[in-house]
Amino acid sequence: MSWxxxxxxxxxxxxxxxxxxxxRPPGPESRTWLTRLAHCQAPMGPRRxxxxxxxxxxxxxxxxxxxxxxxxxxxxxxxxxxxxLLVGHGNEQVLRAVELQSGRLLQALGDVYxxxxxxxxxxxxxxxxxxxxxxxxxGQSGSxxxxxxxxxxxxxxxxxxxLAFEGAYHGLGYGxxxxxxxRASYRAPFSPQLNPHARFAPYPATDAHLDEALTAVEAALxxxxxxxxxxxxxxxxxxxxxxxxxxxxxxxxxARAHGALLIADEVWTGLGRSGSWLASIExxxxxxxxxxxxxxxxxxxxxxxxxxxxxxxxxxxAEEVVHTSTFAGAPLACAAALALLxxxxxxxxxxxxxxxxxxxxxxxxxxxxxxxxxxxxxxGFMIGIDAAPLEGGAVALQRRLxxxxxxxxxxxxxxxxxxxxxxxxxxEPLLDAFTDALGAALTELAPxxxxxxx
Length: 454
Ligand SMILES: Cc1ncc(COP(=O)(O)O)c(C=O)c1O
Hints:
36% helix; alpha/beta; Aspartate Aminotransferase, domain 2
């Protein structure tokens, strides 16, 4: 429902319409809602000048790859819920599954009296790793899944330490937070409460950085306290960095040699986002544990930690130990996830993300080079545009693109990378139109004078 006096623009190709910005964002309705928000929501993020005009908008509705804000502006959503809306807004099959399930059973009784929907999903998740007997722990957020994986590694190895990477983001619960390499300020106020055995190694962006990274990994593993090596197969929030192809196999080899478990954080990369079902398997490794989240619930909060049955058997002890929560494996989210997995399969969306994503990335690279000489990188529909050399970085670019009707997000330690994670269903003409808009926005930004601040 829109709250604006302005009627929404007519939809000619519902869900795949070009942008229509009728009121410069943020329009008056967004501003009113944002004033209310500032009053009632705890103020997160960098402290803002209260007199500065707001730069965000308030969303009212979405369909496919389009969203409407409360001023009836129509945007193309290239952020898609931070990459979570793999099949876009309001996918018919996902909605139907949610509707049917909500008429049957909204909530079961977790591990005590589980729902059939939860068991159906667990069976289906096991099929993601053919040839292995896989078992899962469900949760509600990516952070939950990582916590479950870190605990599993601690149970299996008896070691307290975790090795993570600079620039990494695994969520903000206490377990994942101790392994957060993206921004020191996220950890600093809580550091006395965090795992003191966390170590960090550089995440290699190129072959030239690989040896340095692996040397640091090996040095940390030699300490003998590391039970878990936690890695994103592609660094996501850290700035969409694709590591050299040898990185993951070498990392897996080192972890094994030193008795640590390898956890692949596929919360972002998994289920087609990066152009394959699982980026770690695509890279030729078999991690001990795989974490999924974001897209898994088709827009509802759901996550999973997957591992071989033998390893997951570590949870079964004489003295009870569990990892669960009231809504873990909630039937509604499980039904949505089953529908999502069906849509991904039937419409071959993972393959589409690889093919269309590669074509789009090449077009973006050409345009970004021509307009501003900046780099484009990524895999599938997980793309980063490095705006560090430009005044205002990705935040300034994001703002200009919003005015042209495109929702994007930012990544990197200094928010220097514009991040594009559209629905895997997005129509190609929208991608082409965005490529032109990007070129126009980039030419408006001056080269940066000083160094990019962190
Ligand atoms: C790679 C990765 N892991 C874990 C998380 C945490 O997920 P959540 O925000 O659902 O806790 C994120 C979130 O952006 C992520 O990108």
